[in-house]
Design the sequence.
């Protein structure tokens, strides 16, 4: 038993976790290259005082040279994070499970920028400027896309919004510059259950829960899909699960939803009749309780979905259908493990309490549900097929 799989550190009935110690892996690169870039962006976009600048530089040195430090004991969530850190006490950032490393990094970054400390920087989103740029860049193409959907029949419209919600995820900023983002030809759905998902949605679900991901273009399409489901009566109430605090740079918070609705209501010289109407309808849905924004600390934690707390599980058990958005949620669904690619999703995620669908742009080295030989053929065709965002999946588990 290697140190990476210490007894008591990982459930024995699961495949081994993706580790930051895997040489040449995308997981390792996110720590050695991606996270230092996140720190540089936070320094560039915020006029931080010398104390915070020094703390961010210290975090960058820690990533490269030191063992992982414990959380500040005065922070409101210190007990939880200290218990998680203690499992890997004495290890470096390149000796731990990948999802823990990423989640704990963003938690430590918030600590470094005084996000939790009373004072002028308390509650300030260090990634707000980047999200604003994403929103500005996304509004015009989003408005044009909606205008182009005029006259489509119901199934075509549903498919277009589902696919927009999927591919909008490519705008993720957590690893921007590492092969993600930009115009990418040859986007392909490796698993495409779009007709099955539309048929499932058409059955009418009183309660649909969407586990959200990024702000910007992805959130715009998530909101358009939400409006469509409510307007057509395919859902009576939609709960959008969002992050409680800034996370993975571009992940959406409730405040990002409200800010996005404000942007949609402003005339921008584009065909804004649909976006403006969309904003009005969704504000009305928020007011009358048909749209609920929920932000639980679990979504910012390093826990996988197998370990969701009882109140989160109870909320999902009340859902008639759960839509999981994005790559990080897919990783948490699978425990961020090295599953054989031919494993059935129904088996790997049998614990999830309700019928669910996954909309995922691929940006991590794990996948299930493929046919025998498919993963090998993809590797021969494109060695970066798992992480470069060119491929996605729409997968339904009814």
Sequence:
């Amino acid at each position: 038993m290697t140190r990476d799989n210490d007894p008591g550190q990982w459930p024995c009935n699961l495949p081994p976790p993706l580790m930051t110690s895997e040489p040449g892996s995308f997981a390792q690169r996110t720590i050695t290259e991606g996270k230092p870039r996140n720190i540089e962006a936070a320094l560039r976009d915020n006029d931080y005082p010398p104390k915070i600048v020094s703390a961010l530089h210290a975090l960058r040195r820690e990533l490269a040279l030191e063992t992982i430090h414990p959380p500040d004991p005065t922070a409101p969530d210190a007990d939880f994070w200290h218990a998680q850190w203690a499992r890997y006490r004495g290890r470096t950032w390149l000796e731990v499970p990948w999802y823990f490393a990423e989640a704990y990094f963003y938690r430590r970054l918030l600590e470094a920028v005084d996000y939790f400390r009373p004072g002028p920087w308390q509650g300030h989103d260090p990634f707000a400027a980047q999200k604003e740029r994403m929103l500005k860049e996304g509004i015009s193409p989003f408005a044009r896309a909606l205008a182009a959907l005029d006259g489509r029949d119901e199934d075509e419209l549903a498919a277009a919004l589902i696919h927009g919600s999927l591919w909008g995820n490519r705008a993720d900023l957590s690893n921007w510059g590492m092969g993600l983002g930009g115009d990418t030809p040859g986007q392909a759905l490796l698993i495409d259950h779009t007709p099955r998902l539309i048929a499932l949605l058409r059955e009418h679900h009183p309660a649909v829960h969407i586990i959200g991901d990024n702000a910007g273009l992805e959130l715009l399409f998530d909101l358009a899909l939400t409006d469509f489901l409510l307007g057509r009566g395919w859902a009576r109430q939609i709960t959008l699960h969002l992050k409680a605090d800034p996370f993975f740079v571009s992940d959406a918070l409730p405040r990002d939803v409200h800010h996005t609705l404000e942007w949609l209501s402003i005339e921008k010289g584009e065909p804004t009749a649909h976006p403006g109407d969309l904003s009005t309808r969704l504000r009305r849905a928020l007011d009358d309780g048909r749209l609920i924004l929920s932000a639980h600390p679990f979504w910012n934690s390093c826990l996988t979905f197998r370990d969701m707390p009882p109140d989160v599980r109870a909320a999902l058990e009340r859902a008639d259908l759960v839509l999981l958005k994005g790559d990080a949620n897919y990783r948490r669904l699978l425990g961020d493990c090295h599953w054989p690619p031919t494993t059935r999703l129904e088996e790997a995620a049998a614990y999830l309490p309700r019928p669910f669908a996954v909309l995922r742009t691929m940006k991590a080295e794990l996948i299930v549900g493929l046919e025998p030989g498919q993963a090998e053929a993809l590797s021969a065709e494109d060695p970066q097929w798992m992480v470069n965002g060119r491929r996605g999946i729409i997968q339904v588990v009814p």
User: Anything to note?
Assistant: The CA atoms of residues 8 and 87 lie 9 Å apart. Residues 129-397 form a domain with the Rossmann fold fold (CATH 3.40.50.10880). Strands lie at 188-192, 205-211, 235-242, 291-295, 321-325, 356-361, 391-397. Residues 128-148 form the longest helix (21 residues).
